[in-house]
Design brief:
Layout lengths: L9 E4 L4 H12 L5 E4 L6 H8 L8 E3 L4 E3 L1 H12 L10 H12 L2 H10 L6 H9 L4 H21 L4 H22 L13 H14 L10 H11 L6 H13 L9 H9 L1
Parallel strand pairs: 1-2
Antiparallel strand pairs: 1-3, 3-4
């Protein structure tokens, strides 16, 4: 394994982002040292534009000694180049793994759209708490005051409306159908005989719906309660049971302790 950039990686994330979880999990499982900076929505925009240099505000972003890489798929590409071969991205099965990754990445916005469509207006207090968990006191105060405007802008950006929410639900269901078809032969892993980025991506992208206990956001009872009605039709599906099992087998205790600065900011918010 190439290790010239070890101990020099910083991962910028949202704590609740399924794409961020995909990269956190990959780095953790691969024992690649990194520092995580959990960012606050709205206040992430300018740093993301500056670091990504792609006109995009999305996270995660992996900052390396030479450049910053934005987008989870591009981050995996970089990890393969600089840290490969990785156990979760074996060369002999890479094509199959990346195919599964693309399939689940494609429903990332659908998952977010469906969840927010079913929580805006009914779980706003919980959303504000999630958005301000790692904010400074000033940032948290701004988000609380400006929340109605932020919510409106967020709904426009994600095209959150009944028609698009219904389409998102259909797309998510279709991917669950595909996943269950793959698992019908009794396999534990989607590609090969051990955990790969295919499993990590599938489990991470469906975690907001599966609510695995090992996830620090989606495993919270309050989150599960707030989404219970929306996810009820899927709750006992084999696809989501598989997600919970993969988390139980491979995620365990969430890896990242808050930095002292983040703890202080959270206590003061």
């Amino acid at each position: 394994m190439k290790t010239s950039t070890a101990n020099s990686l910083t991962l910028y994330t949202f704590a609740m982002s399924h794409y961020s979880e995909k990269i956190r999990w990959t780095l953790d499982h691969s024992h690649i040292p990194y520092r995580e900076v959990r960012m606050t929505p709205v206040f992430h925009i300018l740093p993301a534009l500056r670091m990504g240099r792609r006109g995009q505000t999305t996270l995660p972003i992996l900052q390396t000694p030479k450049r910053s890489i934005q987008d989870s798929t591009r981050i995996l590409d970089w990890l393969i180049e600089h840290y490969g071969p990785l156990d979760v991205l074996p060369k002999t099965q890479l094509t199959q793994i990346r195919d599964v990754e693309r399939r689940f990445d494609a429903i990332g916005k659908d998952v977010a759209r469906f969840l927010y469509a079913n929580s805006f207006g009914s779980a706003d207090a919980h959303i504000i708490r999630l958005w301000t968990d790692y904010a400074t006191p000033g940032q948290a105060a701004f988000i609380r005051r400006a929340y109605p405007l932020i919510r409106w802008a967020f709904k426009r950006k994600l095209s959150i409306n009944p028609k698009r929410a219904a389409l998102a639900q259909a797309r998510i269901t279709e991917v669950m159908d595909w996943l269950e078809a793959q698992l019908a032969d009794g396999r534990t892993y989607l590609v090969g005989t051990h955990l790969t980025a295919a499993d990590i991506t599938a489990a991470a992208l469906l975690a907001p719906i599966a609510c695995p206990a090992q996830h620090p956001v989606y495993g919270e009872p309050l989150f599960a309660q707030s989404m219970a009605a929306a996810i009820a039709p899927w709750r006992h599906r084999a696809a989501l049971q598989w997600v919970r099992r993969i988390y139980e087998l491979h995620r365990g205790q969430f890896f990242s302790d808050l930095s002292s600065d983040q703890q202080a900011a959270k206590r003061s918010a």
